[in-house]
Write a structure and sequence with these properties.
By secondary structure, the chain is α+β, with helices and mostly antiparallel strands. The protein has helices spanning 18-31, 37-81, 91-108, 122-129, 131-148, 173-188, 216-232, 241-256; strands at 112-119, 155-160, 163-169, 192-194, 197-199, 203-209, 238-240. It has 2 domains: 18-73; 91-256, Reverse transcriptase/Diguanylate cyclase domain (Alpha-Beta Plaits, 2-Layer Sandwich), CATH 3.30.70. It contains 8 helices and 7 strands. It starts with 17 loop residues before the first helix and ends with a helix.
Length: 257
């Protein structure tokens, strides 16, 4: 049966200004002076205002709680991609940005390079100075590289352990190698004070100019190969992946001679 009464199904609470309610009651009192129900209306109105204020406080608390939940989720998401020791991107965060960079590489032809930086003899640092000083070394080298790289362009991440991966837009191989050598010198100049003496780290750096025709993991692997070549050649130096192919070609030529 349709009673003609429309029931709001939204369950949406809307606050009404107290002054508007009081004004409405004054108009009602002026229209029906001395009406016996005015006393009841006045009591109900007072209760309504009291409940409305309580509801407003609850709404405010709910909004604040929602904001806290949003902030907490944001912090959790941030922690998922940030290395807690150095404050740099971690491997997961870097992978996400690598995927974006590779899409851009495919889309507009922008050249990107990868630098894989590995601190030399890091186990020796931990054994000689202690793990806390080892952590201080990682933090110090991270700060050094951050200052040496171009802000807003180059992306630095802690790839794992004492390894760092850097993604950077470059004009070509020469620019990539120049930045790698700048990093190498900056790391050499870093000194970490400890109770057992100064720690003066060095690094082996593998450089690779990415190819838009190959998967991202292949590019990372080539930077990794170049870094290991730098270690095998005596550490504390930069090796470009393209040079590895030239060395292989030269070795094959000598074998045939």
């Amino acid at each position: 049966m349709n009673t003609g009464v429309r029931i709001d199904q939204t369950n949406r609470y809307e606050s009404v200004d107290e002054a508007d309610l009081r004004h409405w009651f004054e108009e009602l009192s002026a229209r029906y002076p001395g009406h016996p129900l005015l006393v009841e209306f006045d009591i109900l109105l007072t209760r309504h205002i009291h409940l409305q204020k309580f509801a407003d406080r609850l709404t405010h608390l709910s909004d604040r709680q929602s904001l806290k939940v949003i902030e907490a989720n944001h912090k959790l998401a941030e922690k998922a991609v940030i290395d807690p020791l150095t404050g740099l991107l971690n491997r997961r965060g870097m992978y996400q940005l690598l995927e974006t960079a590779y899409r851009q590489l495919e889309g507009d032809g922008t050249l990107f390079g990868l630098l894989l930086v590995d601190l030399d003899h890091f186990k020796r640092i931990n054994d000689q100075f202690g793990h806390q000083d080892g952590d201080d070394t990682l933090v110090g080298v991270s700060a050094t590289m951050t200052n040496a790289l171009r802000k807003g362009q180059d992306l630095l991440s802690r790839w794992g352990g004492e390894e760092f991966l850097i993604l950077l837009p470059v004009e070509g191989v020469d620019a990539l190698v120049a930045i790698a050598n700048k990093l190498l010198l900056a790391i050499r100049s870093t000194s970490i004070a400890s109770d057992a003496g100064l720690i003066q780290p060095t690094a082996s750096i593998g450089a690779y100019l990415c190819d838009r025709q190959e998967p991202m993991d292949v590019s990372v692997d080539k930077a990794d190969q170049a870094m290991y070549k730098a270690k095998n050649k005596g550490r504390n130096q930069v090796v470009l992946f393209g040079d590895l192919r030239e060395e292989t070609s030269d070795a094959e030529t000598k074998e045939h001679e």
